Amino acid sequence: MESTFVIKVNAIIESNLEDEKFGVNELADACHLSRSQLHRKLGELTGKSTTQYIREYRLEKALKMLKNNEATASEIAYKVGFNSPTYFNSSFSKYFGYTPGEYRVRSSLETESEVENTETPSKISKSKILTFSIVGLLVVLGVIFWQSSTTIEPETLDPIEVIATPTNDNVSIMVSVFKNLSSDPQNQYFADGIREDIISQLSKLEGVIIKSDQLPKSNLNVGSSNQSNPIKIEVDYVLNGSVQKFEDDIKVNIQLFDSNTNSLVWTSGFENKFEDIFELEKEISRQIASELDLVLGPDEIQRLEKTPTDNIEAYNLYLQGKYKMFQFKQPDFDEAIQLFYECINMDPNFALGYVGLSEWVLYNFFPNVPEAEFLRAREYINKALSIDENISDAQRVLGVISMEYEWNWNKAETAFKKALELDSNNLYAYINYAKFLRSIKGDFDSALYYLEESLKRNPVSYHAYVLSAETYFMKKDYDTAIKLAEKVLDSSDLGSWKMWAYWIQFLAYAEIGEDDKAVDLLTKSWELGIDSSYNIAPMKEAYKKSGIDGVFQFIVDLDTKNALLARNYQNAYLIAQKLAYLGKFEDAMQWIEKAYERKNSDLYQIKNDPLFNKMHNYKPFLDLLDKMGLGGYPIPIKP
Predict the structure, then answer these.
(1) Whose CA is closest to 571, among 561, 583, 585, 581?
(2) Helix, strand or coil, per DSSP, at residue 271
(3) Of 491, 506, 534, which residue constitutes the final position of a domain?
(4) In 3D, which of 129, 59, 134, 132 has the Cα closest to residue 100?
(5) What is the DSSP string of 599-615?
(6) Which of 534, 565, 594 is the last residue of a domain?
(7) One domain, residues 268 and 329
(8) What digits encode the pLDDT tens for the residues 141-152?
(9) What are the CA-CA distances from residue 413 to residues 407, 417, 424, 437, 624 (Å)?
(10) Are 297 and 224 contained in the same domain?
(11) Which domain holds residue 508?
(12) pLDDT, tens digit, for every residue of 156-211?
């Protein structure tokens, strides 16, 4: 017998049955309960989540309407509160075991009592098991591997602790790295690609904040970590996944956890052919949206339905190329460019392939992209945008090219803003725009805001933490700069991020006159590298002889020597920095001019780089700023 509370809930849902916007929040308000209180109470009484209960109530009502021939399947979809007949058909089929159309065929052949039996999902599944068993006997030898894993076992997370987020208007989802359960470990690129596509799909939904990227290569565990000093991430939900690819068959398993209740909200498996991968990804995204009680508007549905290419093999090559490129190892890097070329040869209108090519050029020739290569990168990104101007990453890369190489500031800012408008979860669009704001506009507070927005979506982004520390250093808030850099040193196992963090601390302690501490931190930084460790003893000797200026001069001499190696003047900007700090303006200008001639990708930062502060009244320096379109400095008002 149903409890009084369940009867009340049913009556409320019934009175709002056709309202597609009626969901968990509305039901909680009608019951005068909080969302979590409703979830717990309904779970105790029915064993179902609130979202599941509402959806299944709608589906049971739909079945009765079909049984009574009250309307067509599409009309019934809207009558029971589904905003898409396609999604209604999918949900109906998953719950009952057949589509609404198949039900009508069945009902014409079965007796009324048999029809009534079909209303119990568990009984339906038994008939399905028989059918699948017969088919399975015919193909059992070919699918033993395919059936090897249907669930995902959550792992203990190290070193991240997921905690519930305070209530707000947005829904935040942490998407962990998807496991590759294929027998071939090289298929990790495919698991990563599906995860990125699902993130991209979910990012198109209003009110959703995706937290992802740079995460440990494991699923996330909801609840407390056993680590002594974990990074704490506030999030509403955690999405775990695994992917199997066997020949042309794809299988994806998804788990959705509620961090507020430490409970599994929903789990489901999805199977499809490789040629239908985009449909599979869209179906996963729609079901996640449904579980989170997100109402999809017409624009959001249209964005979800969009596919990047009709050529599946071109898409596969693109995923492989992107995966290889971001390994940042030369053999993989060399292979990536060939994969991108093959990708656009298969589909010359595949915009993302050109985005990949453009980024590859910028990474490969950093920090001094030769003019011919820079023009090639620009040509690729313009081609991508001519195919589809509404790709967030294409706009972001356009912004990077405009900022770092063209020095077209208006074009860069427009592109970064467009990238964020198209995808409010584009992590590196936030980072790139923050770099623009602090370096071109000198707007440190706005830059910190965008870095914070990036960290909301990627709480373990060492890049964003280091840039935040550097921005506080630019603001002359040395204590905060030191503390933020320390956060990276405590958390990161990556030597490159630690060296950068140590460098910021070195500069900060040098500015506040704690030179011994500064040299100690520089020593720790150089101990992280085999080559740099050889320079520790002579650096300390220079410090002993000439103080902190001796250290800067030692670094200048070292960088000058390195600049004569294969990539001439690759350190031109960095050498100019130290010379400016030492007050050697003429020498600094020589290296600045070399950086200018070579279009050094760091040169855009020069106006608001604190190491050049002493040159603010030096005319050749001001002329260079004018030549770059950066302008001069405001004249201080005398009291």
Answers:
(1) 561
(2) strand
(3) 534
(4) 59
(5) T-TTGGGGGG-GGGGGG
(6) 534
(7) no
(8) 233 233 333 333
(9) 11, 6, 16, 9, 21
(10) yes
(11) 460-534
(12) 333 445 544 444 557 788 888 888 888 777 778 888 888 887 877 777 777 777 77
